[in-house]
Amino acid sequence: MKTDTEPKAGHRICPLCESTCGLLVELEGRDIVRVAPNPDDVMSAGHSCAKGLGLGRIEGDPDRIRTPLLRTAGGGFREATWDEAFAEIESRLPEFVTGDPGSCAIYHGNPAAHHLDATFYLGELIGAVGTRNIYSPASVDTWPKNLAHMLLYGTGLGMSLPDLDRTDYLLILGSNPMVSNGSTVTAPGMHHRLQALRERGGTLVVVDPVRTRTAEVADLHVPIRPGTDALFLLGVLAVIASEGLARPELVPAMVDGLDDALAMAAEFDPDAVAAACGVDTELIRTVARGFAAAPAAVAHSRIGTCMQEFGTLANWLVEVLTIVTGNLDRPGGAMFALPPAGGQNTWPVTRPPALTFDRWRSRVRGLPEAMGELPAVCFAEEILTPGPGRTRALITLAGNPARSLPNSGAIEDALGALEFMVSVDCYLNETTRQADVILPPPPVTTRGHHDVTLAHFQIRNVARYTPPLLDLADGELAEWQILLRLAGIAKGTPDRPVEEMDDEVAAVAARRAARLVGCEPERALRSTVGRHGPQRLLDLRLRSGPYGDRFGRDPDGLTLALLEDNPDGIDYGPLLPRLPEVLRTPDGRIDLMPEMIAADLPRLRASIARPAPDLLLINRRQRRGMNSWLHNALPQTDGGQCALLIGPHDAAERGLVGGDRVAVTSRVTTVTAELRIDDALRPGVVSMPHGWGHDGPGLRTSRSASVPGSNYNALVDDTTDLEALTASPIFNGVPVTVTRTSEEHP
Amino acid sequence: MAYVVTQNCCNDATCVAVCPVDCIHPTPAEREYKRTEMLYIDPAACIDCGACSDVCPVDAIVPGDAAAPDIDRYRDINAEYFQRNPRTAAPGAHVQPLPLALATAGVADPPALRVAIVGSGPSAFYAAEELLARRDIAAEVTMFERLPVAGGLVRFGVAPDHWHTKTVDRVFDRTARRDGFTFHLGVEVGRDVTIDEVLAHHHAVIHASGAAGDRRLGIPGEDLPGSHAAREFVAWYNGHPDHADRTFDLTASRAVVVGNGNVALDVARILVSDVETLRRTDIADHALDALAGSRIEEVVVLGRRGPEHAACTTPELLALGSLPGIDVLVDGPVTAGPDAPAKLKILDEYSRREATPGNKRIVLRFGTAPREVMGDGRTAALTVTDTGTVDRIECGLVLRAVGYRGLPIAGLPFDETAGTVANAAGRVVEPGTGHPVAGQYVAGWIKRGATGVIGTNRYCAAETVEALLDDHHAGLLAARTAAAADLTALVRARRPDALGGADWRAIDRFERERGREAGRPRIKIVDAGDAAVVAGAASR
Predict the structure, then answer these.
(1) Which residues of B touch A703 (CB under 8 A)?
(2) Is A674 in Cβ contact with B18 (below 8 Å)?
(3) CB neighbours of A336 closer than 8 A, spacing ≥ 6?
(4) Distance (Å, rounded) from C-alpha A288 to C-alpha A472?
(5) Which chain B residues have a beta carbon less than 8 Å from that of A636?
(6) In chain A, what residues touch B92 (CB-CB under 8 Å)?
(7) Which residues of B174-203 are buried (b: 16+ CB within 10 A; e: fewer)?
(8) Searching chain A, which residue's CA lies closest to the CA of residue B13?
(9) What is the tens place of the pLDDT at every residue in B110-157?
(10) How large is the greatest C-alpha to C-alpha distance in chain A, in angstroms?
(11) What is the pLDDT of residues B29-45, one digit of tens each?
(12) What is the spatial order of strands in the sheet that B427-429 belongs to?
C-alpha cells in the first residue's frame, strides 16, 4: 500500500457490473484522474465501457456523502462523527433486535454483491440482528433462474454458463449484452466475443420483443411477445421431440427424465405456441433445427426471462434445451466455472444439502424464502401491515428500494412508516432521505477487489485481485468495519473492538478452510498472519480453494500474495467439464423434470389461449446506467433518454405522434413520459428505462434531480401479478395504457 | 467496431459530453470546431460503448457495422480526421465535461433574470435552453416569432428530404416545455411591439432572427424573371408563408445554380428529385404540385474556384451521389491523390461517372464565374467565364446560392461588410467606440454571419448568454419595470390573432398527424389563417 505523498497508479477491477473489467487507475492525491482499460487483464483484455471509465466521476461526485449524517429534529440531516453516529444507532437499534428479531429488516442492493466487504461481513450483521426479513434485488431480477438451476444442479449460485468462446450456436433470450455487458455471465468484451462467434461461422439468435443492439448483430432475431419465452422454448423442444433431433447419446448419464421431458414437450403444438408468442412457426422450427444440428450449441437467458409470469419455467426450459441436445458440460455448450475462492458447488458435502428455497415464508402473505431472503414484493407490506413481527426498523446497504423495487409509491410509504432506519450508502437518495443515520462507505480505491460471487459466472477460469491503492483517510471507515460495528451494536456488545470481532470471523473461516484442506486451523491462521479484514478471509478462501496452495502443501498453488504479484490476473484456462462433482442435488443426479416446476406447466398451457394484452411495457437497458445509482455521476443529457418508445403502428392506432407527452398507466399508477416512435419495437410493446424518477424533497443528488426522468418501477405491481414459484414481480410485460396528456413536466 | 458519425451530424456535441474516452472531435473547446463540417469518432480510441449514439439528437451516430448509407465512406471520413489532426492526449486522461445545466446546479436562491428572444430558430432555442437549464439563475424567457409557426431554418431551411436533420426539433420542443418559457407567435418585434416595450418587461433582449437576405452576384440580368435567390426557392418549397405564392419557371430543361455550397446542392437535388420521393417528405404541397410539372432534366452547379474549393460539406456531396434516378457528374477533370481530402476524392469519383440514359443530372462545374443572365424579358441563358473563355449555358432558371446575408435591425448598429449586427461575443456594441448597447444581444447568423450547421448555434448562443450573465452579475442590466402579465396583455391588444406555445404545439401535432395518415413525416400548414383555425380547434 502506498502513502498519500507518492504518485499513485494501479490496477482496479471494475466494481460496477458483472463483466468485472480490469482497469488502470491513476490518482492525484486521493482523486482518480485517469481510468483506462487494462489491455493485459487476463479476463477483460482491454475492454471497458462508459460506466467503468466513468469511475473517476462516480468516485469524485461532489454530491457523495463522505461524512456520517444524522437526522435532525427539523427533518434534515447534519454531519456527525462516527462516534456520534454509532451512539445514535446504539441508543435506538437494540429495541428492534432484542424484542423481536423480525422487526428489523435488512435490504442490500446490487453494488454490495460486487465487493469483498459485504460478501464476507454482511452475514455477521444478519446473524447479529437475527432477522429473516432480508431483501435484495435478486428477488426482483434473478430468482427464477436461481431456482431453476438450484433444482437442476443443486445450488442457486452455481449456474451453468454459456461457453461463448467455443460455441457454434448461441441462443440468447431476454438479454441485451451488447448494451448491458451481460449478466449471470462474466464475459467482458461481449461485442468481441459475439463477433468472434460469427467470424468462426457460428450462429447468434436473439429472442427479444425489441430489435436491440444485440439483435442487430445477430443472424436471427425472434421478435417475441413479452412473457412468452417459456412457450417459445417449448415450441423449439416440441420440434426437437417430434423430429427426433434430441441427442440422448450425448446426454450425461446422471440425467434423469430425458424421455419424460421430450414427451412433455411433444404435447405442445408449435403452431399454437407460435401464435401465442406472436412469431412465425417457421422461426421456431429454424431455431430448433439449427440448435440441434450445431456441433456445439447453448442457450442463455437473463433478466427478460426472469422478470415475467413464467420465469422459472423459461429458465428451466433453457437448460432442458441445452441438455436434450447433448450440450451440457462440454466445450461450446453449458459449463460450470471453478471459482478460485470456492463456493457451494466446490465444497464437498457429506450429506445432501437442504434446498435453499421455501424454508420459511413471509409473515403477511406467506411468500417463500429463497437463498435466505424474502421476496422484495413483501417489503412494503411487512412494514405497513400491523401485527406481531411487523418490520419497524431497517438497515439498508448500497440499495435504493424506493427506486429499484416494484410499486415505488408503496415502498416510500413503508419507508416513511419505519421507526428507525440506518443506511450504509454514499448518496442521499430517494431511500436514504428517510434514514435516521447514514454511514458513508470509503472510496473504492481503499478496497481490495476480488469477485467471490461473480467468479461463479466466469466463462474462463481466472483468478484476479486488485489491492487497495490508498489507506483509509482520517474520518473514513472501511465498510467491513462499519458492518462489524453494527453487528456489535445489534448483539449488545457495542464496545467490542472491531479487530477482536474480525479475529473471531477469521477463526471460523480458518476452521472451514482447514477442514477443506485437511490441516489444523492454526496452520491456516498462521499462513495468513499479518493480514486482517477481507484480505485475510479472501486469502483463507483462495488457499483452500480449487487452485489453492493448501497452506503450503502445494507451494505453486494459489495465494492472495500470488495474485498481488500478478495484478493482471492468473489464467487457469477455459472451463473444464465438472460433472458429476459439481452437482449438489440431494441424490447427486440431475432431474430434468423437477416436480415443483413441472407442476406449473398446466398454468403455462392455459396461457396459450389467453388473449394478448393491448400494450405491454418492458424495460430498456441504458449504457450509462446501472439500475438507479449511476444517474447522478453519469447524468442523462436530457429527458429524452427516459422516453417511452412505441412502434409506429401502435402510435398511429392511438393517435399519438412523436414528441407527445403521454400518460403511462398500469394497474398501480400513472407516470408521464415523452413519447418517441421507434420501429425496433414489435407491435404491442412499449419500453422505458427503469431506476429513474429522481424527484421529491430532500435529495442530495442535484444532477439526477435536475433531469429526473420517469419512474418505471412505480408502475410495477407487487401484489397480485407475480411469478408463480418465486413471487418475483412481473416487471417485463406490464400491461399499460398510453394516452396523450397535457402534463408538461414528467 | 468503432461507432461512426454519419451524414446528418448537427455538431451540437451532446455526444462529446458522454464519451468516456474523449474520442469525438473537434470538441467545442477546440479551434477546429468553428469550421468543422461535422464531428468525428476516432476509431483507434473508440471503445464501442455506444453512449454517444444513445444521446445524438438526430440519430447521426451508428455502429460501424450498421447498414447505414455510405457507411464505408464514413468510416474512412471519421478516421481521416484523426490522421490529419492526431490526438496527443493519453487514453483515459479524459474527464467528461458536465452539461452546463448540471454544472450550475446547487446555487441557493439564484437571482431572477427575464430575457426576451427574437426569433425561434436554432440559435433562439439554444439561447433559451442555455438560460432556462441553468440553475445559477432563475430565468424566464419570452420568445417572439413573427410567423405563426416556429422553427426558423429547421423548418424553412433544411431540405425536406433531410428529415433526420429536422428531428433536432425534439430538443427545442423540450426547451419550449420548460418552466419559465413563454412563446408569442405571429408577433413581430419592431412592428407589433417596440424594442423599448419589450425591454421594459425584460432585463435584456437577444436578437436571434437569422439572416433574412442574401448575397447578390452583381452581374447584369440578375433581376430578370427566372433569376432568383436560392433562399427564396428554399423558402418556397419549405412552405414559408411569405413565399408560398411565388412561382418559379420550371419549363426549360436546364437550370443553373450559381454557388456550390450546401444550399446549392439542396436546390439542385430538389429540382431533379423524383416527385414520388418528395411526396414522402414534408415539402410544401404547392411546391410538390409545381415540381410535378417540371421539365428540368439537368441542373448545372457552378463553382467559381476549383474542385478543391467546393463550398459544400463532404457528407452532403457524398449523399448526392447515391440518389436513385439522378446522375451526379463533374464537368471537367478532377485529380485527387491518395492523400487528398475525402471531398476531392468524391469529386474525382463523380468526374469518372458516365451519364445513365433516362436519368436526370446534376452537373458540377468548377472554375466557372457567372457573367450575365441573358434573355429577352426572361431568363434564357447564363453566360459564364471558364478559364478565360466565355461560354453560354442555355437555361430557364438561375438560382444564386452564394450565401445568406443578415439584414439590419432597426435601432442597432450594423456591420455592412459582414452583414451582421455589430457585436462583441454577442453583446451589441457601437462600432466606433466598442461601447455595449445596454440590454441588447445577438446570437446565430445575425451575430456571426451565415456559417456553420445547426449545432454550431448552441455554442454561439452559449457565448451570448455567458456575456449576458456577466453583464447581469455586474449590474449592467436595468431592472425591469413592468410585469410579465402586462406584456401578455399588450401583445394581445396589439395582435389579437397572436398564438402561444400551446397553439404551436397543437399546430405541430396536427401537421404530424396529417403527415402520418399520408405516409409523410409532416404536412405543413402554410397559411396563417389555417394555422389559427387548427390552434383554435385544439384549444376548445
Answers:
(1) 98, 102, 105
(2) no
(3) A153, A158, A160, A161, A329, A345, A575, A578, A582
(4) 56
(5) 55
(6) 24, 26, 34-37, 53
(7) bbbbbebbbbbbbbbbeebbebebbbbbbb
(8) A637
(9) 889 999 999 999 999 999 999 998 888 999 999 999 999 999 999 999
(10) 75
(11) 899 998 999 999 999 99
(12) B181-185, B138-145, B112-118, B204-207, B436-442, B427-429, B423-424
Give A623's contacts in chain B (Cβ within 8 Å).
Answer: 49-51, 54
Q: How far is B512 from chain A (nearest CA, A)?
A: 7
Q: Does the pLDDT value for residue B220 go beyond 70?
A: yes
Half-sphere exposure of B65 (CA within 13 A, CB side): 13
Contact A673, A642 (CB under 8 A): yes
Neighboring chain A residues of B101 at a CB cutoff of 8 Å:
706-707
Report the helix count and the strand count for chain A, using DSSP H and E: 27, 29
User: Phi-psi bin for B319: left (phi > 0), alpha (psi -120 to 50), beta?
Assistant: alpha
Closest CA to B460 of B469, B449, B471: B449
Cell numbers of B443, please? 446570437
CB contact under 8 A, B20 and A49: yes
Q: For residue B385, what are the β-bridge partners?
A: B369, B390
End-to-end CA distance of chain B: 53
Pairing verdict, β B436-442 and B204-207: parallel
- Smallest Cβ–Cβ distance between B512 and the set A641, A657, A702 belongs to A657
B contact residues 410-429, partner A, Cβ 8 Å cutoff: none
Is B512–A213 a contact, with Cβ atoms under 8 angstroms apart?
no
Query: Does any CB of chain A come closer than 8 Å to the CB of residue B99?
Result: yes
DSSP-derived letter for residue B522 is: -
A53–B21 CB contact, under 8 Å: yes
Taking a C-beta distance cutoff of 8 angstroms, is the pair A628, A708 a contact? no
At residue B13, what is the residue type?
A
Q: What is the pLDDT of residue A2?
A: 46
How much is the pTM? 0.95
Which residues have a Cβ under 8 Å from the Cβ of B474 and sit 6 or more positions away? Answer: none
How many whole angstroms separate alpha carbon A533 and alpha carbon A503? 9
d(CA B261, CA B403): 8
Q: Does B506 touch chain A (CB under 8 A)?
A: no
Number of alpha carbons in the 13 Å side-chain half-sphere of residue A608: 19
- The nearest CA of chain A is from the CA of B227 a distance in Å of 39
Q: 3-state class of B285 per DSSP?
A: helix
Q: Which residues of chain A have pLDDT under 50?
A: 1-2, 744-746
Q: Which residue type, as a one-letter code, is found at position B43?
A: P
Q: How far is B58 from chain A (nearest CA, A)?
A: 12
Residues composing chain B = 540
Please indicate whether, in this complex, the C-beta atoms of B51 and A623 are within 8 angstroms of each other.
Answer: yes
* Mutation site, B10, B19, B95, interface A, largest A CB count within 10 A: B95
Query: What does the pLDDT look like over B267-277, one tens digit per residue?
Result: 999 999 999 99
Residue of B nearest to A178 (CA): B49
B171 and A674 in contact by Cβ < 8 A?
Answer: no
